[in-house]
Amino acid sequence: MLVHAITADLQYEFAADVRAGLTKPSQKELLSKYLYDDVGSALFEVICHLPEYGLTRADERLLRRHAGDIVERLATPIAVAELGSGSGKKTRQILEALCRRQRTRYYPIEISPTALAMCERELSDIDCISILGFEREYLDGLLEVAAERRPGQHLLVLFLGSTIGNFDRMAGLKFLNQVRRILQPGDSLLLGTDLEKPSSQLLAAYDDELGVTAAFNLNLLARINRELGADFDLAYSEHVAKINHHNRSVEMHLRSTRRQTVNIPAAELCVEFFEGETIWTESSHKYSADEIFRMASTAGFRCEVQWIDDQWPFAENLLVAE
Ligand SMILES: C[S@@+](CC[C@H](N)C(=O)[O-])C[C@H]1O[C@@H](n2cnc3c(N)ncnc32)[C@H](O)[C@@H]1O
After folding, report:
1. Closest protein CA for atom 9 of ligand 1
2. Ligand 1: distance of its center to the CA of 87 in Å?
3. Which of 31, 16, 10, 9 is nearest to 264 (CA)?
4. Binding pocket residue ranges, ligand 1, CB within 6 Å
5. CA 192 to CA 298: how far, in whole Å?
6. Residue 109 Cα, ligand 1 centroid: separation in angstroms?
7. Can you spell out the DSSP letters for 182-241?
8. Can you say how many angstroms the Cα of residue 109 is from the centroid of all Cα atoms in its chain?
9. Which residue has the CA at smallest separation from atom 5 of ligand 1?
10. Cα separation of 182 and 136, whole Å?
11. pLDDT at position 149, please?
């Protein structure tokens, strides 16, 4: 796989974002994209196998069942771009179905080089695809992919795993709008969205018995220690998952179990935590099936078809740019 790597000073940006997030006057915050370094990307793969995290299996089932139908509805010739591909395991269904019609260029767009490497290992045995990875933020990568398209070629953009839920509702809508502006009429977006479900099921999914999600979350502090020279003592931080009923989301936080002061030299920061204070690290918003039609239409897409899993409330939505 060819990869276009990032050239900007990532460590400087990481330090600036950590500084901005941990000096917020009310709720301290770290951006969820930083959960995915080498260790975080590997831990996320394990989360996808956990019995409590039914989301990935629901997404997989829907793609396996409907890949043929999805592909038949697409105008060809077509290239495929995937936003936040992760390991790309689920994408195999779509790429193999497409290969029955044409040779396909596949562009995974990822901020995690580890995830991009996993994606190559996972999919490189499919004969009729060529993979060109972009180590980029979602929209920067998509703009570059769009610039590569040949005349008459359509784009299918994949945004699976309900990663859109990491944006709050307004930001999610804005993001769909931005994606739509990069696309041309007739291009498609396959959007995976996790649906609302009982709180107990959600809490288990984001706070599993084995502690893998806790490790995934705590790794963010370990990453700040490794990359920014900080002295977080992980023994005094704990993973917390909680439901935000107002926002219809599950939030992950890191709670300080005692009063402590942490030095983060590369961010030129010394930060105080009181006992019980949390850092908000991720939100996963949940949707109603109807809401997705409205969001799509407001962003300039027509919802061509929506499939809902029969075991775990999750919707796969094929949206067409109008
Ligand atoms: C929740 S995981 C989903 C992975 C995969 N799509 C799935 O469905 O299992 C989100 C993925 O998006 C990547 N990611 C997070 N923020 C990103 C950003 N701003 N730009 C590009 N990739 C991002 C992460 O590295 C991670 O692999």
Report:
1. 161
2. 9
3. 16
4. 33, 36, 41, 44, 48, 56, 84-86, 109-112, 115, 137-138, 160-161, 163
5. 18
6. 9
7. HS-TT-EEEEEEEBP--HHHHHHHTS-TTSHHHHHHHHHHHHHHHHH-----GGGEEEEE
8. 11
9. 86
10. 16
11. 93
Check whether 290 has a pLDDT greater than 90. Answer: yes
Give 110 Cα–ligand 1 centroid separation in angstroms: 6
Q: What are the pLDDT digits (tens) for 170-215? A: 999 999 999 999 999 999 999 999 999 999 999 999 999 999 999 9
Structure tokens that stand for 111 in this block: 């901020």
User: 44: part of which helix (H) or strand (E)?
Assistant: helix 38-47
* 54-65 pLDDT, tens digit each: 999 999 999 999
Position in ligand 1 atom list of the atom nearest CA 112: 25
Nearest residue by C-alpha to atom 6 in ligand 1: 85
Give residue 82 CA to ligand 1 midpoint distance, Å: 10
- The strand order across the sheet containing 237-244 reads 28-29, 278-285, 249-256, 237-244
pLDDT band at 9 (very low <50, low <70, confident <90, very high): confident
